[in-house]
Amino acid sequence: MRRTGIFAAALVLAVAVGCNKGNETTKADGSTVGTAGRAENAISSGDRDFVRDVAAMNIAEVDLARLATERGAGADVKEYAQMMLNDHPAAGDKLKAFAAQRGIEVPITADDKARDDREKLAAKTGIEFDREFADKMVDSHQAFVDKLASRIDRDTITKTTIEKDNAPDAKVKATAVMPEKSDDANTFALNQWAAETYPVAYAHLEAAKALRDGVKKRATN
Predict the structure, then answer these.
(1) 21-220 adopts what CATH topology?
(2) How much is the pTM?
(3) Which among 83, 87, 102, 110 is positioned nearest to 17, based on CA atoms?
């Protein structure tokens, strides 16, 4: 299946923190302080919330994907679920590494809402399961795309060109998005990650919509 793996190639969070080395001092906790006197690797509350939210979304999607590989009735559902399992765990690991280096606590298990959603999905079988799973994939990926867009220069967001070979497969052909500018090194690094990830996340959203359409057609036959 031709596709661009979500996050796996895009999650390159090379944060260059610690500019102006000649004017820095080192704190006891290992962080550096520049001439302005603030820790250069300090993480804002907004950045912490962003990392936590993305990590939670990742966990929820992986849990549903695992369930779909076991319970999915259609081959298209199982294929889409496997795509999620191939792409998301590596992305989650890289995000957790970024967070650990900067003292950001991230969730390691699904929250109450995600667990409740999984239980409700697990209670369904056959075409009803497939339909519910497809709907949830559209909703979750739309939320993720919206989250990424909050860190992108919206003037540079153009319609992403997608080539679809089959329902669960979508490949990004072209895009033009730029990160929102920021003087904070960590914030800008996350913004860059968001801009790099956006086209692939959008492709997965389009694939989820195609999957939903395919499931609906099966349900009417």
Answers:
(1) Ferritin (1.20.1260)
(2) 0.74
(3) 102
